[in-house]
Amino acid sequence: MTNKKLYVLGGGGHAKVVIDALAASGTTIAGLIDPRLEVGTIVLGVPVIGGDEWMTKLDPQGAQLANGVGATVKSRVNRKLFDLWSAQGFSFASVVHPSAIIGAEVELAQGCQIMAGAILQPHAKIGVGTVINTAVSIDHDCVVGAHCFIAPSVTLCGGATIGDGTFVGAGATLLPGVKVGNNALVAAGAIVDTDVADGDYFQR
Ligand SMILES: CC(C)(COP(=O)(O)OP(=O)(O)OC[C@H]1O[C@@H](n2cnc3c(N)ncnc32)[C@H](O)[C@@H]1OP(=O)(O)O)[C@@H](O)C(=O)NCCC(=O)NCCS
């Protein structure tokens, strides 16, 4: 438990999912920080309080962040913001929707996000800043590295592993024990039945 006030970075689509998960777990959000929205805009009951200039008013000793910026295949602004504000001493809260099922001895690193309906089976490990999106199923002994974006309804069968910075498109399935490297891209709906090297693109 922390006494720090929690601020969400962003007020767009991904932020809505983050706000909803935080609200569902009884967490109070002090405000949203988004340079693209007018101050005073209300998103799911939470006001936008300013843009990046607001960050200079916050003290990392008294404020914690949640990353409300999503990722796309081409844009990883969420990672840039994580690195930028972490370097200034801010910590990122992990977000776990109460409807997610978290099995025994699952390891969740700082700032990861486990969205509604996700299932993580025993001994799964999720890295720093990684997003496990709506209804993702991660089976026993899977490892997902840091700053990955696992899109809705992806399935990882037992023992599958993913490196850092990888994007897995909606509904893809990784067969048991498959290894996907760092900064790779798996197309939506792909059935990954072979290892994928660092930086590679897989679609089948
Ligand atoms: C694989 C992907 C990256 C390709 O993107 P792209 O390079 O912009 O490709 P395009 O959309 O221009 O499509 C090129 C061709 O591939 C096909 N295609 C695109 N995505 C495909 C997929 N996932 N599976 C099979 N075929 C696909 C298109 O229909 C198109 O076919 P055509 O040339 O016969 O018309 C993208 O489609 C994808 O899967 N993105 C993931 C999106 C996602 O899951 N987001 C999560 C949001 S929460």
From TrEMBL:
It holds the Pfam family Hexapep. Residues 5-71 form the PglD N-terminal domain. InterPro entries: AcTrfase_PglD-like (IPR020019), Hexapep (IPR001451), Hexapep_transf_CS (IPR018357), PglD_N (IPR041561), Trans_hexapeptide_repeat (IPR050179), Trimer_LpxA-like_sf (IPR011004). SUPFAM superfamilies: Trimeric LpxA-like enzymes. It comes from the Bacteria. Keywords: Acyltransferase, Repeat, Transferase. The keyword Aminoacyl-tRNA synthetase does not apply. The keyword Transferase applies. CDD domains: LbH_AT_putative. Belongs to the transferase hexapeptide repeat family. This is Acetyltransferase.
